[in-house]
């Protein structure tokens, strides 16, 4: 297990796209961050409750997985 990959995954879970940017894929990181912001706005105004937050958590988990696998 490489600790750098784990740290990047954790950072990408907290701020989706950060792990990808640290891995060197800045374009993908920026796109994932913008999608995260858009999801945040959608959840804030349209999908309040457990469904909206569940979608955000699933997206954060995907971002973390992607950062770990692309290290």
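Q: What amino acid sequence fits the structure above?
A:
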């Amino acid at each position: 297990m490489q600790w750098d990959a784990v740290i990047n995954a954790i950072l990408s879970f907290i701020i989706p796209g950060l792990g990808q940017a640290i891995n060197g894929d800045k374009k993908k990181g920026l796109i994932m961050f913008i999608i995260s912001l858009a999801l945040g706005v959608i959840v804030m105004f349209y999908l309040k409750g457990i469904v909206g937050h569940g979608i955000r958590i699933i997206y954060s988990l995907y971002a973390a997985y992607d950062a770990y696998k692309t290290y």
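Q: And what stands out in the fold?
A: The mean pLDDT is 95.
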